[in-house]
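Why do we bother with holo predictions? Because pocket geometry can differ from the apo form. Keep that in mind while you read this record for alpha-D-ribofuranose.
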Amino acid sequence: MSKISVIGIAGESVFLSVERFGKTGETTVATSYHSELGGKGFNQAIAAARFGVDVSFLGAAYIEDIKHFTDIAERCGVTARFVGKCKRSPYAVITTDKNGDNQVCVYGGAQLEEKDVEAFESEIRSSDILLLNNETPYSVNKKALEIAKANGVRVILNPAPARKCDKEFLDDIFIFTPNEHETEGLEEYRNVIVTLGDKGCFIRENGEHISAEKLSSVVDTTGAGDTFNGILAACIANGESIRSACEKANVGAAIKVGRQYILESIPSREEIEKFMEGRNG
Ligand code: RIB
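The structure, written out:
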């Protein structure tokens, strides 16, 4: 079985639904509340696991949260290693409006250090793909990339949230997966797949645009990018072409967008394939 490693944050995500987002200084009233374990890396790990690849996740957490987080990851098919820290676990507040759009604010809390990534080396070494994002400190991603490079493991970087990185670091990335607002600093790279929300994605290498699936109703766009990244990484680990990986990742993201929240809404490989079969007649 193919294997991917994912490094990222995991922590409580609180979802509040509002009619519309407030203006600066305005108080809005939420019509519903929901809490679940989230974080970009954690969601991506789940998306890849539901696609059927072996997934090893590394994150940091407040010591007393480790058992709870590990149990949830295990239930979702992810082998997770949480490094205990004396700081509260990451925390996110996600507001979604009636159009399914979202605003996300993340508190990093307990964070990984370089030494934690060093202790994860054997997992990276035995992976087909290492999936990184920018919710972890830059020093952590640099260490992870160094280990991957030394062991010939390809790295996919989801540069979310956007941040400035050295050319030396960027040069070693196999594929970048920014959204339209995260492409700054990547102008000179061809190995970029830009996610375009309801417009699908764009493969810069060959200038190909892959349209998104049309949905009858958009319920919640939160986590669509994470779903895309996890499935993309899984498909590439399985040896699929970039095009085929993007198509499946697009379908996975579209299915997710038709459902509320993230954890239970990320589709399985079977659901994605069934959807594609239906579409192709
Ligand atoms: O991409 C969505 C994720 O970003 C949420 O799960 C939230 O935790 C934030 O990290």
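The radius of gyration is 18 Å.
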